[in-house]
Amino acid sequence: WSWKSLRDDPDGVSVSLWRLAPGGSDELHAHADAGAIYVLRGEFDCGGVTYKAGDYMFRPVGVPHQTSSRTGVETLLVYVKRKSGA
Length: 86
What we know:
Low-confidence stretches: none
Mean pLDDT: 92
Structural class: mainly beta
Number of helices: 0
Helix content: under 10%
Order of helices and strands: EEEEEEE
Largest sheet: 7 strands, antiparallel
């Protein structure tokens, strides 16, 4: 994955553009923040589901996942950051 930050508020929400090249994949991992993903172009596979341009998915905090893309994909990712002490 490569990415470009569009907005990063340390106490709230971050928005970024993510790209995965054709044939790309990542390792199984989880995030400390909830994420909302909107597929702009291409498609990717995650958890046995193929997400295509126009699809939306919400990933709760701590959910393990692994992604791959045969065609390449571009997504808009919005992370809702956890507040300190939460």
